[in-house]
Amino acid sequence: xxxxxxxxxxxxxxxxxxxxxxxxxxxxxxxxxxxxxxxxxxxxxxxxxxxxxxxxxxxxxxxxxxxxxxxxxxxxxxxxxxxxxxxxxxxxxxxxxxxxxxxxxxxxxxxxxxxxxxxxxxxxxxxxxxxxxxxxxxxxxxxxxxxxxxxxxxxxxxxxxxxxxxxxxxxxxxxxxxxxxxxxxxxxxxxxxxxxxxxxxxxxxxxxxxxxxxxxxxxxxxxxxxxxxxxxxxxxxxxxxxxxxxxxxxxxxxxxxxxxxxxxxxxxxxxxxxxxxxxxxxxxxxxxxxxxxxxxxxxxxxxxxxxxxxxxxxxxxxxxxxxxxxxxxxxxxxxxxxxxx
Length: 341
Prior knowledge:
Oligomer: single chain
CATH superfamily of the largest domain: Periplasmic binding protein-like II
CATH class of the largest domain: Alpha Beta
Strand content: 25-35%
């Protein structure tokens, strides 16, 4: 428990409550060594046994961004799209990691296929009917859309906040165009819509966020944020890599190192770890330990064999902890710039 703004409570992290974003978030937490314990799926509270001072709350993605912005929740995982929309010009939300590796989508400016001459944002004024003065844009993201249009000097616009399926809006005359999230583009084609060539507003995926003021006000919130970053970054860094162990015959450690460093793949992330193998036959064998990308494993085996490698063992990697995570250093720098501490 800690006291923040006169309230005694646990540190709170909000996670998505349903859908694919929820499933992938829980998978990330588990694989990062931060498994969430939720005794009953109908409960909206849970714990993280490895972080005993933290309470998990399950909310909708948009509500998570609001809760973190308002400081009701200290930390959260949501989509960068809703975070950017809710944050608007507020600096209360700090994005600690914007690339958790799932929940990817893109927010685009979209017009009817029938508007064949309109391919760029500068041309959208042509969509305004003669009886109207303003362009009507239907969107679930009015703040992001407004900033994009203003950046492109399109100012004569009515932004229509809409929910549900937006694709029908131009067809029924509810709007002249829309901005919406696009993944495969199939829904757009089925509804005779197209994205503008320069209409990309935002690339989004799941992100880890925090309330700036709560981080500064509480060393406990800051420590929880550091631990989350530490484990998630170490897991993401390890994902897609494998550890390779092999024995190589050579006259010296330096000779074996030169053989390995002369190869494209097996030189590893920072170079090999080499040690002497003590044999009863008196031969010069050296054990090497490499970290390589999983998709390069076939080439790595080939390179090891070309320099006399044998007894190759490959194991998965769960975490790669290095120096203090760059994301944590960036976070501290931002807070020092904003709050002088």
